[in-house]
Design a protein that fits this description.
Two copies of one chain form a homodimer. The first copy, chain A, is α+β, with helices and mostly antiparallel strands and 263 residues long. Chain A has two domains: 11-146, Sandwich (Jelly Rolls); 152-237, Arc Repressor Mutant, subunit A (Orthogonal Bundle), CATH 1.10.10.10. Helix content of chain A is 36%, strand content 19%. Chain A has eight helices and eleven strands. In chain A, the strands form three sheets. In chain A, strands 1-8-3-6 form a four-stranded antiparallel beta sheet. In chain A, strands 2-7-4-5 form a four-stranded antiparallel beta sheet, covered by helices on one side. In chain A, strands 9-11-10 form a three-stranded antiparallel beta sheet, with no helix packed on it. The longest helix of chain A has 27 residues, at 125-151. Chain A starts with 26 loop residues before the first helix and ends in a 26-residue tail after the last helix. In chain A, 38% of the residues are buried. At the A-B interface, strand 2, strand 5, strand 7 and helix 3 of A face strand 5, helix 3 and helix 6 of B. Chain A binds a DNA duplex (30 and 30 nucleotides) through helix 7.
Chain lengths: 263, 263
Amino acid sequence: MFPPNDHASRCTTCAIRHRSICDALNATEIVSLNRIARSRTVPAGRMILGEGQTRSVFANIVSGVVKLTKTLDDGRQHIIGLLFPSDFLGRAFRAENPYFAEAATDVELCVFPTAGFERLLAEHSELEHRLFQFTLTELDACQEWMLLLARKKAEERVASFLLMIAKRVPNMECSLAEKREQVHFVLPLSRSEVSDCLGLTIETVSRQITQLKTKGIIELVNYREILIPDLARLREAAYDLAGHASPSPLKAHKARRSVSSDD
Amino acid sequence: MFPPNDHASRCTTCAIRHRSICDALNATEIVSLNRIARSRTVPAGRMILGEGQTRSVFANIVSGVVKLTKTLDDGRQHIIGLLFPSDFLGRAFRAENPYFAEAATDVELCVFPTAGFERLLAEHSELEHRLFQFTLTELDACQEWMLLLARKKAEERVASFLLMIAKRVPNMECSLAEKREQVHFVLPLSRSEVSDCLGLTIETVSRQITQLKTKGIIELVNYREILIPDLARLREAAYDLAGHASPSPLKAHKARRSVSSDD
DNA sequence: TTTCTCGTTTGATTCAGGTCAAAGTTCTTC
DNA sequence: GAAGAACTTTGACCTGAATCAAACGAGAAA
């Protein structure tokens, strides 16, 4: 899909150049990273990285979506993370990989060989620093997701999921969409995969999507294509009230012994 | 509670010296870290760090247990992490703290002032590297916990929780306990806090503990003191079957072939 | 066109865990 | 040590999501 490596130019035209870990490097360093990098495309559904696999793969996600999954022996499984363009795949400093990585859509990767990448990491602390930043962001997202899994109801989970996707997936309408807070995108995952993200079943996800559709919070162009007429309403359904506290009168939850400041 | 700082000796007698982030530093560097460190004890139940609080606290946990919590506006809450002796508290490079930190038991901290610690971090890449390692471990644990929240049943969750505690809390019997795989410890959390770790209610946690007791997998000395006669049985109840590197056998996945070996 | 397949939706039913309500245990405090 | 208060267990009942079971598209092959 790509012309053979052209160390000088490939990175300069790279779409994710300034959002990926590469942004930590200066022009000279970029060249040496580029020298060891290899482009690779992976079709949807193909495994990229096996759980417990001895040697990790290091790669930038250039386009597409990668899902990271964990599985119990009896088949119960969970998607512990999704990687979008500019995200980094691979656990530095870990001999074993703690999860599977699989292409959710067709994926374009920029792959770095293990040894070479780790050497670069050791030589350029800027690069390690940036990787650290990425890891912290991943940890934040993970902890946020734990709250969802532990305490949110099915509808809130599905709404939260759509919100998360809407934030990271390319919008189909580029006109004055943002202005109107209207979003239109293609879901990168099947219902089954969505349910594996949310700790629900396919049926429940489907029902909740129907529910959101009935309420007019989302519109389905087709199974995968979703239009969100008003992000604020979706945010409300997701109970994603970052900061602004308006205790939704939908259901009065007994706030257990809290750090009560009032009555 | 502590004698005034003695830069030369305090660290050398520190119980967590070699497990904490400090182990990344050499003797000279330790002294400069020690110079800015301050001992502090926090009684159980006291807040250490507020969510969204502008400036982070940096500290080693010397003794006791700290819980990190996230709360939805209506009071639904979740404990996203527990910190044990030698763990590190605080988000480097983040202006805002994404969670509450509260002393679950009486806690002894070794606190570092923000500015000074970040300077040390910048000067000694070894220290940042170690912090990175700690963060990766935290991320691993977090992702493991997501699987628990998403897919494990109540009894498995409680068993997993006890297992996790058993691994990290000091054992009360030091004789030939390990040999027999027998563990005896004091729960650092109340039932309510346990339920907030597991995404369950107090009642369900209580019932599952009773259940485990009935099955003879655990014994209750009192509400907080637990004896585990056979760790293997608890591990089984937790569905914590380590090792497995095979994808789900039940759910038929079309993705099988690995991409790692070349075309 | 028909037929097959795969992913999705919808309906009926079940059940694990939540909710509500006591009652039993510890631990304080006076 | 009596009186509470706080925490924990237990019981009865309810409900939200899982499970079981069709039916419904949409795309692919014939």
